[in-house]
Design goal:
CATH architecture: Alpha-Beta Barrel
Shape: globular
Order of helices and strands: HEHEHHEHEHEHHEHEEHH
Structural class: alpha/beta
Number of domains: 1
Strand order of the largest sheet: 1-2-3-4-5-6-7-8
Number of strands: 8
CATH class: Alpha Beta
CATH topology: TIM Barrel
Length: 272
């Protein structure tokens, strides 16, 4: 059995995360979308649980994150929060819930916090969403930023390839990171950018920087279903699989089907 490296079982807060960056202690982050998974992820010692709009892909089979609605993400976040004791739970704000106006952004962020019990929200984008970030922070809600490959902009990008490889985009990303910190973000996700640029972002801001597909940072995040190997076809370079649940589940369910059809299940000891 793995040794869970959690010494402090107190609830993780924004203050905890700032102190972890200051002490150069790495931050572990995973997604969760349901009560049962969140309870296990939390017990294993994860610092941050993201209720990601990736639920659109993982839970609903959508090709992008765009279709998930505010009501749907709230349902997932409610389920996750019920299973968590220690981890900081941050909820993605879905596409369309903060881009239209800062007023909309605050209204929807408040609704997420009131109805789910989440500890904060996450928004994608840089200076373009700065007013929304400021207004949400001013309302007393912790905000996590997200730069680099921002999946809600996939139709604009046209590809899930590495971002900020060119000098101009890299310079804008650095500028956006500083602006988001100044606006009050407590942490920042950088997705699928060059590892050297990730290091520049880590050095440029005092808030924790969480990487995914961007090399070493203050912490790392993965989609829980991906790192557990439930999706056998998804094999990006940055993904390390810690289990092969696809085949484990396939074998177990196949055995169940066989046992039911042969009459082996239930046996005498499995009846009342």
């Amino acid at each position: 059995m793995a040794a869970y490296l959690v010494e402090d079982t107190k609830k993780v807060t924004t203050g905890t995360l700032r102190e972890m960056k200051r002490q150069q202690r790495k931050i572990a982050m995973l997604t969760s979308y349901d009560y049962t998974t969140a309870k296990i992820v939390d017990a294993a010692g994860i610092d941050i649980i993201l209720v990601g709009d990736s639920a659109a892909n993982v839970m609903a089979g959508c090709s992008t994150t765009l279709p998930i609605t505010l009501d749907q993400i709230i349902y997932h976040a409610q389920s996750v929060v019920r299973g968590v004791k220690r981890a900081f739970v941050v909820c993605d704000m879905p596409f369309g819930s903060y881009q239209i106006s800062a007023e909309d952004a605050v209204r929807n962020a408040v609704r997420i916090m009131k109805e789910t019990g989440s500890d904060g929200v996450k928004l994608e984008g840089g200076v373009e969403i700065l007013e929304a970030v400021k207004r949400i922070v001013n309302a007393g809600i912790p905000v996590m930023g997200h730069l680099g490959l921002t999946p809600q902009s996939i139709n604009q990008f046209g590809t899930y390839g590495v971002r900020a490889k060119e000098e101009a985009e890299a310079a804008k990303l650095l500028s956006d990171a500083r602006a988001l910190e100044a606006a009050g973000c407590f942490a920042l996700v950088v997705e699928k950018i060059p590892a050297t640029l990730t290091q520049q972002v880590v050095a440029a801001v005092r808030i924790p920087v969480i990487g995914i597909g961007g090399g070493a940072a203050d912490g790392q995040v993965l989609v829980v279903d991906d790192m557990l190997g439930k999706n056998a076809d998804f094999k990006p370079k940055f993904l390390r699989r810690y289990a092969d649940l696809h085949n484990i589940m396939l074998d177990a369910i196949g055995q169940y089907v066989c046992d039911v059809k042969t009459g082996d299940f239930p046996n005498a000891s499995e009846q009342y």
